[in-house]
Specification:
alpha/beta, Rossmann fold, Arc Repressor Mutant, subunit A, seven-stranded parallel β-sheet, six-stranded parallel β-sheet, 17 strands, 45% helix, nucleotide-binding, DNA helicase RecQ, Helicase_C-like
């Protein structure tokens, strides 16, 4: 295992950072000792560092499983500009190019190799890499492995073969969004041996959660984009025709935007993604097809024009905003008709079991929409990250509803869940509380439990609201693997035993249309920042790479704040290492010195 000082030296030399983010050093030390790992970090939380830094220290090759060609290219472009030898093998290359890469691998000239799961699991490819000095397999977007994940991809499920072919080589699985069921499935599918599991906070505090009632969707989105001026953004729709309709409206209104969905030709999709990544397209209006591989750190907002199917997909999508750590916003335009249409679409799925699971997951999404408690708490508790602290950066926290002492009614709900042995879903618990006799309740004998009929004086909607909030606050969890049965959490004990007073939100009659601009966390010279951004775009265009591969916005903001006058001072800026300083330092220093001399 490399000593901590060696890790920090490599971190600064190659990546320009002087310290690790939370959890990174622990994961790196574990994998370098030869241990399998499951790494759960939020989008933009630094997952890739967990395998890229070890690759610079291993005497051998790290193979990275990546889902998209465009993502591979961005990663390799970024690594090579940081002085790290990397390559990819995918369908865009000729056989001669692939052969050349294998020759370089055999000669020890490549440290990281990116491949798609479809290629890595092919028998001939496994044979081809068998003799190479492989030190680590890193599987990015590992939630794709699980049938319970929101982006099930069949080729990923075959990656369990890695442990059969290479039993002594550590495997690292990485993802940003996976609930408890999905995590278990990932571990089982990959056959990881005594893995080190790092579960980081899912929280992205720099992203503001904003829900607004959709009453004139197209004009609302247009007004919102104009408020954000030149900010880059993504707008998600649930259907192709809605993507086309909205993008045409915005384009006719003078917005620099493009449509993206699976029905477009491959060349068009590649053009849009490349244009967005290189800051030539400001807004992309897309279906979920514009998903994995969006490696653009300066997306300032993600808007949902229609509801996504799951909390996982919602959180993955909004995670594409603010990856540079600067303030960003997630806007959700709510419409009950959209929700009804989505439910109907899910119900029409030809696979009945799949439809049932998807409907259960979508219910969690509608609960998020209906939440009257801190929206960040709803999301974090869904991922089993229990927190009592409200975020102060969502529409509920910024415009809170009224509250009431709900200790007694919560006790009724939690006691009912306990009395029916935690075997009923929300609808079932409400039916028991309201004292309704049904064949199913009689079958289980639950008309005889002490909580039967305790809540008959309240409407079903009242109890649904209370139960949703108890789920949101982490006192109850829904077990997807058991038909969304409600389960008591450890936190429920304090409410059941009256050790705390529980305040819940009184239902709001309507949701206000609410959002506001984020403000920058640190002050910097905005005129200089604009000049630096223009210079970055010129260099990136000349090298035919995305601007963030040169420097990301956070690094430019720090340059505009610190205003270094020498190479030594420039090295103190986060994100600038030795290789990038040698490559880009002179033109940026010249610009800064010229600006300060104006």
């Amino acid at each position: 295992m490399a000593p901590q000082a060696s890790l920090l030296d490599s971190l600064k030399h190659h990546f320009g950072y002087t310290s690790f983010r939370d959890g990174q050093a622990d994961v790196i030390e574990q994998v370098m000792s030869g241990r399998d790992c499951l790494v759960l970090m939020p989008t933009g939380g630094g997952k890739s560092m967990c395998y890229q830094l070890p690759a610079t220290l291993f005497d051998g090759i790290t193979i990275v499983v990546s889902p998209l060609i465009s993502l591979m290219k961005d990663q390799v472009d970024g690594l090579t500009r940081q002085g790290i030898s990397a390559a990819f093998v995918n369908s865009s290359q000729s056989q001669a190019e692939v052969n050349d890469i294998f020759q370089r691998l055999a000669a020890g000239q490549i440290r990281l190799l990116y491949v798609a799961p479809e290629r890595l699991t092919q028998h001939y490819f496994l044979q081809g890499i068998a003799s190479l000095p492989i030190r680590l397999f890193a599987i990015d977007e590992a939630h794709c492995i699980s049938q319970w994940g929101h982006d099930f991809r069949r080729a990923y499920t075959q990656l369990g073969c890695l442990k059969r072919h290479f039993p002594h080589i550590p495997v690292m699985a990485l993802t940003a969004t996976a609930d408890v069921t999905t995590r278990k499935d990932i571990l089982e599918q990959l056959g990881l041996h005594n893995p080190y599991v790092h579960l980081d906070s899912f929280d992205r505090p720099n992203i503001r959660f904003t829900l607004a009632e959709k009453y004139n969707g197209q004009k609302q989105i247009l007004s919102y984009i104009k408020q954000r001026k030149d900010d880059a953004g993504i707008i998600y729709c649930s259907s192709r025709w809605q993507v086309e309709k909205l993008s045409k409206f915005l384009g006719a209104s003078g917005i620099n935007c493009a449509a993206y969905h699976a029905g477009l030709e491959t060349e068009i999709r590649a053009y849009v993604q490349d244009g967005f990544t290189k800051d030539n397209i400001q807004i992309v209006v897309a279906t979920v097809a514009f998903g994995l591989g969006i490696n653009k750190p300066n997306v300032r907002y993600v808007a949902h024009f229609e509801p996504p199917r799951t909390i996982e997909s919602y959180y993955q999508e909004i995670g594409r905003a603010g990856r540079d750590g600067l303030p960003a916003e997630a806007l959700f335009l709510c419409d009950e008709q959209d929700i009804s249409r989505m439910k109907k679409r899910i119900a029409e799925h030809e696979d009945e079991q799949r439809a049932k699971v998807e409907m259960q997951r979508f219910q969690a999404m509608t609960d998020f929409v209906d939440a009257q408690t801190c929206r960040r708490q709803v999301v974090l508790n869904y991922f089993a990250e229990f927190t009592k602290t409200r975020c102060g950066n969502c529409d509920i926290c910024l415009d809170p509803p009224s509250e009431f002492d709900a200790t007694e009614v919560a006790q009724k709900v939690l006691s009912c869940v306990y009395r029916i042995e935690q075997k009923g879903d929300v609808q079932y618990v409400v039916t028991v509380l309201r004292g309704q006799v049904t064949p199913l309740i009689q079958k289980h004998g639950h008309e005889k439990v002490s909580t039967f009929g305790l809540g008959k004086d309240k409407t079903p909607s009242y109890w649904f609201s209370v139960i949703r909030q108890l789920i949101h606050l982490g006192y109850l969890q829904q077990d997807i693997a058991q038909h969304s049965a409600l389960k008591l959490t450890e936190a429920a004990r304090s409410v059941l035993t009256a050790q705390e007073t529980l305040m819940l939100a009184s239902p709001r009659l309507q949701r206000a249309s609410y959002w506001q601009q984020n403000t920058a966390t640190k002050q910097y010279d905005r005129k200089l920042f604009g000049k630096l951004r223009s210079l970055r775009k010129e260099i990136a265009d000349a090298e035919d790479v995305a601007p963030f591969i040169v420097f990301n916005d956070a690094t430019l903001a720090e340059l505009a704040r610190i205003q270094p006058r020498s190479q030594a001072q420039m090295l103190s800026v986060s994100g600038i290492g030795d290789t990038k300083l040698a490559r880009y330092g002179e033109p940026f220093l010249s610009l800064i010195n010229a600006h300060l001399g104006d």
